[in-house]
Write a structure and sequence with these properties.
The chain has 512 residues and is of the alpha/beta class. It has 23 helices and eight strands. The relative contact order is 0.09.
């Protein structure tokens, strides 16, 4: 994932402040020097680095220790605020025309991900806004782009207008807009051509398309892996076309991520979405404050909650919660939950969204192999319906049959059944509010971990108390988990609201 190296470097900087009662000017000089090096290594543009470091230095000198925060936390707070401002401050929503159609024009260099993004955005508009989009294939120089857009259109059941590669892009866009007006499409997404580098021919063509289409949004699609070059590309496109927003793709790759930190400052135009994978669902709204939290290793609970809400069916979740509470969770439920969790993304990335988890050294070794998940599913699918529903005891003979049918060893099947039973016991402990029993299951019978052994930023588990009050009690205090700052309060509020909604749905279901 992007920013991993930057996160590690910044966390190393803040560790040096532990135990200090006041941040001296020399401390600030050392901190800003390390931050400067970390940002430059992350491919952030030099002018942006200079401005960012200067702002931190001016605010951090002479920071007194408050009762609530230690010096490291106060400096992190300053860096967090400045980083959020650097990334744009607040969410930038997609603009909408007062009259249909809203025309969105995608521009960028070849290979940046314009066509894939067009499909992702069309899917998002159709599902979340009940829109009727039309996609126009205006990249006539790369026939594969037209075929790709048509394939995406077929998958999403969204119309695609194209005239092949013989007609000029300007005429294709003109005719496509006429088609959209005829069909009363409320959104038109124009997939324009790119080049390996910016040239005058490309810019003239895009300018002509802009004059004909009068787009509400001109979104520049930038590949995060291009580093500092991305900032210069964005500046050139902005000067010529006056772009309205930026899309950063391939943020899921092993990239330094400096483009995201540079583009907003250099162009003054907001980052609106980020691409986090190849799937059509891998599109995230860009929230500067949440991205800042991730970069600083403080997690991103709000995005995690939104991912869970989008992937988990509410009615199914209510039934599953009731099954867990009544200890009726079976192998069929396990496969269903496994599918839903894996659809949220790689497990190691999900865990990093939990505050404090990115600071645990053990997390670097956590890798969930998709093949291992497939093997577990194969074991369950090799069972008979009665075995999956726990209506038949899994005798040694049955286990050997399951091992043979799933392509696993007898030992693997035994191990999986043991893990399933342990998970089931842990779920029962969670639903009953027995935090210590749950932790014993997780820690191999050791109970609650010692607070002194926990990484900086993780909650003291002994302060969490009985989970039954945390799961929606009116006076439940979750500040121990999320911290007492503004970000912690916001996360706590979001969690409480989500829990209350879930509890109300469960109560309604029981009345029925």
């Amino acid at each position: 994932m992007a920013f991993e190296n930057l996160t590690e470097r910044l966390q190393g900087v803040f560790k040096n402040l532990r135990g200090k009662k006041k941040v001296s000017e020399q401390d600030v000089t050392e901190i800003t020097k390390e931050i400067r090096i970390a940002l430059l290594e992350a491919d952030v543009a030099l002018p942006v680095v200079k401005k960012f470091v200067k702002a931190i230095r001016e605010r951090a000198v002479g920071v007194e220790v408050s009762e609530a925060l230690n010096p490291a936390q106060q400096v992190i707070s300053i860096v967090d605020e400045e980083l959020t401002a650097l990334l744009g401050g607040g969410e930038a929503e997609l603009l909408k025309s007062p009259k249909i159609p809203t025309v969105i024009m995608m521009v960028g260099l070849q290979g940046s991900g314009k066509t894939t993004f067009a499909g992702k955005l069309a899917k998002k508009l159709k599902e979340e806004s009940d829109a009727r989009p039309l996609m126009i294939a205006a990249d006539v120089y790369r026939p594969a782009a037209i075929d790709q857009l048509k394939t995406l259109g077929n998958q999403l059941e969204i119309p695609v207008y194209d005239e092949g590669t013989a007609e000029s892009p300007v005429n294709i866009v003109k005719n496509g807009l006429a088609k959209a007006a005829e069909n009363r499409n409320d959104y038109v997404l124009i997939d324009t051509a790119g080049r390996l580098e910016i040239d005058e021919t490309l810019m003239n063509e895009l300018t002509q398309i802009k004059e004909i289409a009068h787009p509400t949004e001109i979104l520049l699609v930038v590949d995060a892996m291009t580093g500092q070059v991305a900032a210069q590309v964005a500046k050139t496109f902005d000067e010529t076309l006056d772009i309205t927003g930026v899309i950063i793709t391939k943020l899921d790759g092993d990239t330094r991520g400096g483009a995201a930190l540079s583009i907003r400052e250099i162009t003054g135009k907001p980052i609106k979405f980020t691409g986090t994978g190849e799937k059509l669902t891998d599109l995230e709204v860009f929230y500067p404050d949440r991205m800042s939290s991730r970069i600083l290793g403080m997690g991103d609970m709000l995005t995690l909650i939104e991912k869970a809400q989008s992937q988990f069916d509410e009615e199914e979740s209510r039934k599953m919660a009731e099954k867990m509470a009544e200890n009726r969770f079976d192998y069929e439920d396990f496969v269903s939950q496994l599918d839903q969790v894996t659809s949220m993304g790689p497990m190691e990335e999900i865990m990093k969204m939990i505050p404090g988890m990115s600071q645990m050294p053990e997390l670097a070794n956590v890798k969930v192999d998709p093949k291992d998940v497939a093997r577990k599913k194969a074991i369950v699918l090799s069972m008979t319906p009665a075995e999956r529903r726990l209506e038949a005891e899994l005798s040694p003979a049955r286990r050997r049959r399951i091992a043979s049918g799933s392509g696993n060893s007898y030992v693997d099947v035994n191990k999986f059944i043991k893990q399933f039973n342990q998970s089931k016991d842990m779920m029962q402990s969670v639903m009953s509010g027995d935090m210590n029993s749950m932790m014993q299951g997780m820690m191999g019978g050791q109970g609650m971990p010692n607070a002194n052994n926990m990484p900086n930023g993780m909650p003291d588990m002994s302060q969490l108390g009985d989970l039954s009050s945390m799961m929606g009690g009116e006076n439940s205090d979750m500040s121990a988990m999320f911290g007492s700052g503004i970000k912690g309060k916001a996360t706590e509020f979001a969690m409480k609201q989500a829990m209350k909604r879930a509890q109300k749905k469960m109560k309604k279901g029981k009345r029925k």
